[in-house]
Amino acid sequence: MRIGVMGIIIEKDRSMAQEVQRILSAHAELIMARTGLPDRENGIYVISLIVRGTNEKISALAGKLGKLPNVKVKSAVTDAEIPADHT
Prior knowledge:
This protein is 25% helix and 46% strand. By secondary structure, the protein is α+β, with helices and mostly antiparallel strands.
């Protein structure tokens, strides 16, 4: 298991916000912390996550989010490993 960060940007309008929320809820076991910042004036909505999981699960979450229209995702996973029995 690894620790990482994920940045999610919803651009233009909030039309994808509900679908982003659905995907995040479906992967809640990976999310340790979440912060959101709406910049309504510029039509940009930012979500930052601290995630914990396998590289495969974190990549799958980023991939699902990144396929949505007007949603941009960047993630970085550290090489720090967490023993599986501590989750």
